[in-house]
Amino acid sequence: MAALTAALLQALNTGFKREFQNGLSMVTPTWDKIATRVPSSTKSNTYGWLGQMPRFSEWVGTRSLKSIAASGYAITNKDYEASVEVKRTDIEDDEIGIYSPLFQELGRGASVFPDELLFALLAAGHTTACYDTKNFFAADHPVYPNTDGTGTAVATSNLTAGAGTAWYLLDTSRAVKPLIFQDRKAANLVAMTNPDDEAVFMSNTYRYGADLRCNVGFGFWHMAHKSQAALDAAGLSAAIAKMQSLKGDGGRPLAINPTLLVVPPSLRQAALDTVKAERNAAGATNTNMNAVEVLVSPYL
Asked: Domain range spanning residue 281?
């Protein structure tokens, strides 16, 4: 039987933290392929600048200044946690090895948690508002005839209706990706092992927990398109054409160029057939070969 000394508990804490760190590196998250990381140092961040895309024009006289639209789009950080209980008797009986996989999984879960948040948000884009108060995927985003956002808005769509499983086309080549990961505090493992702690006294258990603070939100809706049409050459070409033809306020082309096709596992084969095969089912050259990269997410 191991004596529960302060030195032993400290050694256990060090070992569990090591397993937690090992878990963090066990997996490569994919959230950074669809989202821009924005460090946060406050309770929430407001993204008023989403109301405009900067553009160059000939400099004649004084600069032509455009105030950042006060969209009021704010992302408030949330607290998240996951915890593990370790029985005192397991420590006394040297059964600590059974907990190593749990702490590794705790670290792995922390690493991929932004994936869970961001791909869930992408899937909910047709019912969740972005900075212009419209749902991120909508048929009526307002685009104005004047560069200062005045005039009668033209309803503009980044959505293709259909009866099929949803897939998403994204332009991830810009400084701001279609989604935002607001990072307030990275995951950290803490321990409750003091003999005076209530849980230790009442339940004969030691508690370990990881917590983090963050949240997710939408960037420019122009850089994403949701389609429920068939995922084939015609469907992909139509979605690409819609994105490339988008114009901003004042009628200026936005030069959107989709780079990433995001699909759930059920559409993996259709996605690969559409953009990775050299030839289509009829044997003709696949003109969409490598037009975009494919990202399959289990969280869709």
From this structure: 6-55+68-296
